[in-house]
Specification:
This protein is α+β, with helices and mostly antiparallel strands. The protein contains eight helices and eleven strands. A five-stranded mixed β-sheet has the order 6-8-9-11-10. A four-stranded antiparallel β-sheet has the order 2-1-4-3, with helices on both faces. It has a two-stranded antiparallel ribbon with strand order 5-7. A hairpin with a 5-residue loop joins strand 3 and strand 4. It is rod-shaped and about 135 Å long.
Length: 385
């Protein structure tokens, strides 16, 4: 199983674990809030009985106890409404108004909302009189009901920051490995390339008319170019205006000579030169990688179409093949280091291409479209000069 799939499975497991923890926290908080709400309802029933005793007080009523119960409510908002609909009293409410009429209207509106929520206790008095005790949840209960969501939000922010920090650290570590590997490769290639250059010069002097010497010279120069590309990885190149048409044609010329005759490579380029700020050597590497992957995906039979054109805000290069195609769920995975569908290969080509396009040229590279059995189109977007 590719390591990218394992990473995806680990992410899914962590996400499921986080969801389960959040769900359990919310369920536990829900039960706790319900218990406290029932406790407040019982307190209000006792408070309502105290109000009944106060309204029907006689010589045997312990007013001290009744008033202690009534005055002991410091947290639960409560409104007492008379039978005629007027407000008798209210507690633990913040009412801001200039006149008594405004105060009563505001309190009546609050009482109506409490009734709609079902927070109502009706007290029967003598002579068919009654009072309505309207109450609301205490501030503490409301805060407790919101607390789990605030807590989960803070935890979520912490997790996101932690994951971002870990990914940044991992990416920085990977970059160091990339740079070190590239520099060492360029260094190791330098000595044999210098030796090959010397030997080709000797052969040129010894056999000046040999027809193979120009081809050998091209291959040695090719090795020089590869070594120079590796040496540029890790250092920020200085892009300069380059004709994109010439770069694409140069790549096609190189790939065509080393590809089966059953593979057709067609370019669709504008008639006018298309200048873009590029590091030509590195960008050629990107197009080469896309073309080589396309050839591998077609098993040596098919066609490759390379398009270059301008849009209002950018310059676009598209490489389309008639190969095996890529599953939609793997569009992003193909750019991950180590991802490959070939039996041989390290899965680094597209990862390097993504790094060159996005980090060195501030552009984008992605799978534009793909269909199993019909082919794939890669799209590169670059900023205009």
């Amino acid at each position: 199983m590719p390591w990218t799939d394992r990473m995806k499975q680990v992410k899914i497991l962590l996400m499921c674990a986080a969801i389960v923890i959040c769900a359990l926290s919310l369920i536990w908080s829900h039960f706790l809030v319900n218990d406290l709400a029932q406790e407040e309802q019982r307190k209000m029933e006792v408070w309502a009985e105290a109000m009944r005793s106060f309204e029907q007080a006689d010589e045997q009523t312990d007013l001290a106890l009744v008033l202690k119960v009534i005055n002991g409510n410091h947290t639960i908002p409560v409104i007492v409404i008379n039978a005629d609909g007027s407000v008798q009293t209210y507690r633990n409410l913040e009412v801001r108004a200039k006149s008594p009429e405004e105060v009563e209207n505001i309190v009546k509106g609050m009482a109506s909302k409490m009734k709609e929520q079902g927070n109502l206790i009706r007290i029967s008095l003598d002579d068919d009189e009654f009072m309505e005790i309207c109450y609301d949840e205490s501030i503490m209960l409301k805060r407790l009901a919101r607390y789990p969501y605030i807590q989960l939000g803070i935890v979520l922010i912490f997790v996101v920051v932690a994951v971002f920090a870990l990914l940044s650290s991992k990416r920085a570590e990977q970059n160091k490995v990339w740079v070190g590997l590239s520099k060492e490769t360029a260094h190791q290639l330098g000595t044999p390339i210098s030796s090959l250059m010397a030997w080709t010069q000797v052969l040129r002097e010894t056999y000046p008319d040999d027809e193979l010497l120009p081809e050998m010279d091209k291959d040695v120069k090719r090795l020089q170019l590869i070594a120079e590309r590796f040496s540029k990885i890790g250092s920020m190149p200085e892009p300069k205006p380059e004709n994109l048409n010439e770069i694409v044609e140069h790549v096609v010329e190189y790939i065509s000579r080393r590809t089966s005759d059953h593979v057709t490579i067609t370019t669709h380029l504008p008639e006018q030169p298309l200048y873009v700020n590029l590091s030509s050597q590195l960008f050629e590497w990107v197009v080469e990688n896309l073309c080589k992957n396309a050839v591998d995906a077609m098993d040596g039979h098919g066609s490759i179409d390379i398009y270059a054109f301008e849009e209002p805000q950018r310059v676009v290069v598209e490489v389309a093949d008639t190969g095996k195609g890529i599953q939609k769920g793997h569009f992003k995975n193909v750019f991950q280091p180590g991802y490959t569908t070939k039996q041989r290969g390290w899965g680094l080509g597209l990862s390097l291409a993504k790094r060159i396009v996005e980090e060195y040229h501030t552009g984008r590279i992605f799978v534009k479209a793909s269909e199993i059995g019909k082919g794939t189109t890669f799209r590169i977007e670059l900023k205009k000069n």
